[in-house]
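F.,

This is the one I mentioned.
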């Protein structure tokens, strides 16, 4: 019996994936462990390996397919001794969720090259949505197009395999008349029967229209990564009671030690490396800040798994340095550089960005003096690091001297950390930074 290959869940937060590239084509032999495809998740692009062996009978999605739900069939393998005659009945059993890609025997011609076909009645009247208890069969792309144009899929006759509605059917529907959903058709019928003096209706929800006028805009789909960021940060701000503390820290001692290390050991450390090490050391000495709230109790973590915010073109990701409190500055610096490189190249594995116990975020490279970050749930806090700047201060002799300072802002969950504990934790970070020799013993 043919084997269905499903869109895998490559991370706990993954609900949909994008098919970036196929590594196999129809007719190729596949063995367990072979690379099948590149899948873009909500966090990174990952290679998917085959767990079964056989021959590729059909690729059900084309490269570039977007927002494919987890567990949706994406390909079919034929077992030893099977031929293409076994595909048709098998594809029919999964027809409601899979859309065969171009180039397969059982698939339609590539939608972009196919001639548009009439798939709705030749009339400008709005057909009523079909009354059916089962959802209309449609490819993911066709369903997305229908939703964006508010079309009733039930009223469109599909020209794809087994009556599936595909892209060309939606395009033909838009050219020959727009079958609308029942709700939109009803609203327009009401508008048409209203008095001539009635103001025009503005489509959209109250959330989308703040007034009767909407300026022009371009609508872009929400990426999986941006959706996860939005969901998690809304969860954080609505369920974790934040409070904030800020402290100015002198960087003069760090700058001197950094220069000494560079000259004598030829090791280049960044200012951020010192901040990360100081944070890890302070967390080791302040267990209440290395914790998480749960329904069964408070989790006090035994290691400091330090998450560090890394900006990407399409969002934000927080790779994790495991057991950061046990690592010297050079090791910590190398790991952070490697994680940041993998993150920007989309090569992070799920275990590289999951399970952090505390997060550090820096905007100092952009000249931001002070900012307050949102906690990465379920962690107890996040440290925001501003830019280094020269400020005048009084020395021990009351003379005005220049000092290099950074402002650190701590956001903490008040359920887990009280004000005094947070202040002590922030001051421990300050102590380590202003006397960095304490971090190497």
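My design for it:
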């Amino acid at each position: 019996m043919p084997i269905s290959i499903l869109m895998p869940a490559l991370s706990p937060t993954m609900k949909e994936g994008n098919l970036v590239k196929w590594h196999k084509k129809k007719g190729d032999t596949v063995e367990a462990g072979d690379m099948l495809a590149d899948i873009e998740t909500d966090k990174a692009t990952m290679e998917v390996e085959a767990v079964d062996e056989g021959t590729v009978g059909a690729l059900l999605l084309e490269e570039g397919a977007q927002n494919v739900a987890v567990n949706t069939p994406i390909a079919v393998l034929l077992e030893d001794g099977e031929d293409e005659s076994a595909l048709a009945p098998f594809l029919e059993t999964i027809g409601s969720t899979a859309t065969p890609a171009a180039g397969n025997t059982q698939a339609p011609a590539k939608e972009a090259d196919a001639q548009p076909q009439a798939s709705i009645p030749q009339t400008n009247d709005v057909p009523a949505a079909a009354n059916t208890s089962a959802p209309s069969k449609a490819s993911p792309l066709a369903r997305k197009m229908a939703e964006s144009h508010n079309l009733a899929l039930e009223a469109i006759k599909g020209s794809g395999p087994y009556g599936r509605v595909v892209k060309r059917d939606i395009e033909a529907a838009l050219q020959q008349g727009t079958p609308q959903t029942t709700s939109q058709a009803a609203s327009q019928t009401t508008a048409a029967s209203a008095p001539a003096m009635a103001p025009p209706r503005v489509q959209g929800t109250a959330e989308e229209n703040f007034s009767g006028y909407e300026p022009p805009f371009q609508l872009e789909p929400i990426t999986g990564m941006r959706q996860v960021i939005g969901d998690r940060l809304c969860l954080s701000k609505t369920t974790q009671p934040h409070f904030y503390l800020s402290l100015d820290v002198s960087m003069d001692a760090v700058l001197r030690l950094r220069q000494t290390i560079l000259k004598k050991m030829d090791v280049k450390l960044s200012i951020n490396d010192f901040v990360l090490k100081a944070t890890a050391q302070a967390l080791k000495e302040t267990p209440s800040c290395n914790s998480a709230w749960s329904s069964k109790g408070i989790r006090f973590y035994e290691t400091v798994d330090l998450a560090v915010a890394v900006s990407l073109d399409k969002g934000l990701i927080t790779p994790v340095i495991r057991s950061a409190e046990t690592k010297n500055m050079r090791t910590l610096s190398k790991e952070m550089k490697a994680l940041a490189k993998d993150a920007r190249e989309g090569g992070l594995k799920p275990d590289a960005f999951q399970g952090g116990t505390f997060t550090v975020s820096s905007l100092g490279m952009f000249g931001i003096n002070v900012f307050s970050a949102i906690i990465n749930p379920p962690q107890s806090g996040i440290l925001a690091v501003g830019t280094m700047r020269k400020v005048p201060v009084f020395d021990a002799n009351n003379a005005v001297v220049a000092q290099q300072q950074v402002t650190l802002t701590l956001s903490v969950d008040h359920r887990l950390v009280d004000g005094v504990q947070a202040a002590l934790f922030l001051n421990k970070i300050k102590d380590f930074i202003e006397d960095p020799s304490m971090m190497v013993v």
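The radius of gyration is 29 Å.

Talk soon.
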